[in-house]
Amino acid sequence: MREISVKVIEKKVAELCIKANLNLPKDLEDCIKCRAKEEKSDVGRNVFSDIIDNINVAREETIPICQDTGMAVIFLEIGQDVHFIDGSLYDAINRGVAKGYTDGYLRKSIVYDPLERVNTNDNTPAVIHTKIVDGDRVKITVAPKGFGSENMSALKMMTPSATFDEIIDFVVETVAHAGSNPCPPIVVGVGIGGDFESCAYNAKKALCRPVSIRNPKALYADLENTMLEKINKLGIGPQGFGGTVTALAVNIEQTPTHIAGLPVSVNIGCHVTRHAEAVI
């Protein structure tokens, strides 16, 4: 049994909140630069140029890539041989989020009650997803999620009779409906299978997979490529000004489901699809 102080978790979460908001993952930055060369619209290429300038300035000046520094989504993979000491794990995570957003001068966007709309003033509580795995290590992924893109997400409870074309059409139609709202070029996370809530979780988790990596199963890798091609034919383009690059990548995550169901969910990430991770 390995003991880990929650104070270590708190410190690391604070660091990751700042890092994720200031620096894009290298694979995503490389993808943006690559897609910029593929964009055929003059306006679209100019928008890509501004996006790349913004990424560089954020890194050089240590300022957020986007003014919407997001709701803090935390993915935890906890080794079953780990024992936490010095207090509550979730309390420590929320203290880490509060510290990161305060010390990093990041916008605090969370309201305590969805209808009363009073700001908590420290960007907590975080959304925390916990998975118990083998071993004695803890992997923390912090994925700040802005709501311009989150608001454009969707889930549909399909039946097993749904065809591949119907699944593809649902994803493409979701992006078409989103239009310029999620600040394209976007990353599209798709969950297939599971049940209502796990399907949505998989779509969100898919956004944390490097855009350079396709689904390991050929069936889903082919679907990713087909969806991306159809989305980019929509003509929405960078920031919605028209063009040939509306999406940077489509990432699908699939899980077992019930014989009577086929849930499909779409979680859209803007061109600033941020996440940072660490292993303790």
Description:
It is a single chain. The protein has 280 residues and is an alpha/beta fold. The chain has 2 domains: 2-21 and 65-145, no CATH class; 148-273, no CATH class. The chain is 39% helix and 25% strand. The protein contains 8 helices and 10 strands. The protein has a 4-stranded mixed sheet. Helix 2 packs antiparallel against helix 3 (42-61) and helix 6 (164-178) packs across helix 8. The longest helix has 20 residues, at 42-61. The chain is globular, with a radius of gyration of 19 Å. The mean pLDDT is 97.
How is the secondary structure organized here?
Blueprint: E1 2-5, H1 6-22, H2 26-38, H3 42-61, E2 71-79, E3 82-85, H4 89-103, E4 127-133, E5 138-145, H5 147-150, E6 154-158, H6 164-178, E7 186-194, H7 196-206, H8 218-232, E8 247-257, E9 262-269, E10 276-279
Parallel strand pairs: 1-3, 2-4, 7-8
Antiparallel strand pairs: 2-5, 5-10, 6-9, 7-9
